[in-house]
Amino acid sequence: MGNSVDKGSSEVSNAITSAAPAAAEKPKCKACCACPETKRARDQCIMDNGEENCGKLIEAHKQCMRDQGFNI
To answer: How many angstroms separate the Cα of 11 from the Cα of each of 5, 15, 16, 22, 47?
Structure first.
């Protein structure tokens, strides 16, 4: 499980971000300002189609928030 750290610096960063608990990495900004692209797409889909029809966009935004260090 910890062997992916020997790879290139971007791969190491991605591995650390996805493997580390969100509490270990502090968010770089407030939750309201994080992931504006996924937030905008999610919100527009929910307004147009209803929450039940936007699962993929909701999950994409949650993953983006996790990647930013938020415990979602």
So the answer is: 8, 6, 8, 18, 36
Rounded CA separation 18/13 (Å): 9
The DSSP string of 9-55 is HHHHHHHHHHHS-GGGS--SS-GGGS-HHHHHHHHHHHHHH-GGG-H
pTM > 0.90: yes or no: no
- Which residues have a Cβ under 8 Å from the Cβ of 15 and sit 6 or more positions away? 4, 5, 7
Give the separation between CA 6 and CA 56, rounded to whole angstroms. 32
For 8-40, what is each residue's pLDDT tens digit?
A: 433 433 444 444 444 456 888 999 999 999 999
For 36-61, the pLDDT digits (tens) are 999 999 999 999 999 999 999 999 99
